[in-house]
Batch of 2 targets.
Target 1
Amino acid sequence: MRELGIIRHGAMIVEDGILRATGTRTEIEPLIPREAEVLDAGGRVILPGFVDAHTHAVFAGHRANEFEMRIAGASYQEIAASGGGIRSTVRLTRAATEDELFQSASHRLPWFLAGGTTTLEIKSGYGLSLEDECKMLRVIRRLRESTPLDIVATFLGAHEVPDEYRHAPQEYLRVVIEEMIPTVARENLAEYCDVFCEDHVFTVEQAREVLTAARRHGLRARVHADQLANTGGAAMAAQVGAATADHLEHIDDDGIAALGDSEVQPILLPASVYALGLRRYPPARQMIDAELAVVVASDFNPGSSPVPSMPLIISLACTQMRMTPAEAITAATVNAAHSLDRSKETGSLEPGKYANFTIFDAADYREIAYWAGAPLTWRVYIRGRLTYRAGLAM
Ligand code: NIG
Ligand code: FE
């Protein structure tokens, strides 16, 4: 994870949205076709576009009120137990039309681009009924079709037990398994299925049931596991052959060993620890020492992580989880692309992949982690097309 394969005085050739060649400027110059347009990056750092492999970027409203309640001492779980949290966003999302959700999510997509993200995973999970989950997934599909970002959809019907099933959670799971999953799969609305496996939400056994049903319908698993307590979610993810186990703030040695014996990639979400004002970050160093292909992502959502910026995630990975800047960049690019089955297309600057790259106003890649919160993104290209450029300042 520490080997970035840096090319100093580098250059590359892009044609029809695909990277054709990379190398030093001296190697590349003779290969430049005469009619080519030449862009001089002025000695700036160029990285593969960030792949944000865990977000909840479609929702209505916001929860700045809960943010303030937490500052005053309430916990995320207390707010959820009193009817707030995920369920409050569910009420607003149900009340919103498909167009309204599309508009509000579209309005936020430039926030991701401004951090250099070019691929975005987005989960449903604020509908919690067949109709409203499908509405969210259709919004995600529209975003994919109408914006330049590469967008991957995940069905998260088992994100919370909705108000009307509060006293019959098992009945809600039947709806997820017997109605939602088959419909989502038939209408091709998602590639992955996720579950919030946590104390007071869904147990390991319930999560296993959902993910096993999803696999029968061709949806691969991602799991919210061991976030607020250790419930053995990571080991379950390994047993069901999940693509990823996400969060893992409370994973233990057995959980890490289980991931080590599997192909499951850990996705670490430091901004959700930061924004909840918690102290316990996932043990990234132990996972890297166990040779796990660690991913970092934003977890962007209106509750636990109102943070869309991958450079800030990378900074937190360094300062709070002691990953090196190189490890954090690997975790945000090529490892993240692999976790979404996109590593043949994106995640690194290699000939044959999409020309998804970001130019940073920096001469050393470590500056991206170091100037925390500074707007270093200078240009973003997706499939060879300029998609974002830094704005004017007077
Ligand atoms: O990844 N933990 C569950 N889901 C989200 C939070 C969603 C919300 O609070 O709206 C997470 O942290
Ligand atoms: Fe999440």
Target 2
Amino acid sequence: MKRIADKLHREGKRIALVPTMGYFHEGHLSLIRKARKVADAVIVSIFVNPTQFGPNEDFEHYPRDFERDRRLARELGTDYIFGPDVKEMYPAGYRTYVEVEELSKKLCGMSRRTHFRGVTTVVLKLFEITKADVAVFGWKDAQQFLIIRKMARDLNLGVKLIGVPTVRERDGLAMSSRNTYLSPEERCDAVAIRNSLRHAKAMIKKRIISAPKILAAMRKVIGAAKSARIDYVEIVDVDNLEPLQAVKKGKTLIAAAVFIGGTRLIDNIRV
Ligand code: PAF
């Protein structure tokens, strides 16, 4: 991969990387389409990264379909797929991790203590290996995007990051590979997450900007879904993820993580 990336740069090509864990849905495809528009060569990485899963999480069960992903990526004009195996990325004796302090302990970091350390470590490795000039991520994982942006700034990586809006199912549920875990009843309940964010938006439109009030209303919407259990709902500053008492125009992230049955789903809006 590194030899190919060097050759692409020698030919004067700009490289875009789309880092993924595979099992593509429309959200991934929108990232690839964006990459195709902004670069001369598109590399899609497919790697289910063990270091970002906790000991009791779904690494083993995470859905995988490499052949289908490869076909879809090719159809959208991907030039290279980088699909290493775990031993190549983390050979025996691997000991080096990258961590963005503070940001990675908030929101999802509260219940997934080592998740973002795994994400930043693998993403930095992927940037190095593919020599990406541009990398494309989804805003669905808003915290991930902000943490990677901070890492890129702090470590002078020189890679340009592009965030792409969340792609949704017809009823508003944010697309996620984990949606495949939901039973039909849970799938109906899952839309409560999006509905709670919609409700927040509607309140803000009516000039209700008190965070406690909005959060209470969101909890009520989610609580009405039988299989839902809230991990967190928060209204935070989009730069430092610190909780806000009131919505700040152009600066606010409203984020939720909710267990639907045994499946933990996340969603957010920026206002
Ligand atoms: O968003 C994801 O799928 C993963 O966290 C990423 C960025 C590919 C790192 O493994």
